[in-house]
Amino acid sequence: MSTLQERLDRIKAGFVEQAPQQALDIMHAATEGLRDSGIMDRIPKTGDKLPAFELVATDGEVVTSAELLARGPLVVTHYRGDW
Known about the structure:
Layout: H1 4-18, H2 21-36, E1 54-56, E2 62-64, H3 65-71
Antiparallel strand pairs: 1-2
């Protein structure tokens, strides 16, 4: 069975093979612009502890990180949304 990273690498390679070069150039320039901005120094890294937070769930209820942590380890992911 392949790892998540291996699967993501295959997906990325497939995209790069099919995407127009102009689109790839724009994406790479935007990525470099973000790196040059220093944003990478300010984002949480894998294993960092995040500050306490609360979010509104899809049912409208407020959920806190403390409540979720009381149930066990918590993994937080970010979905960017629509492109």
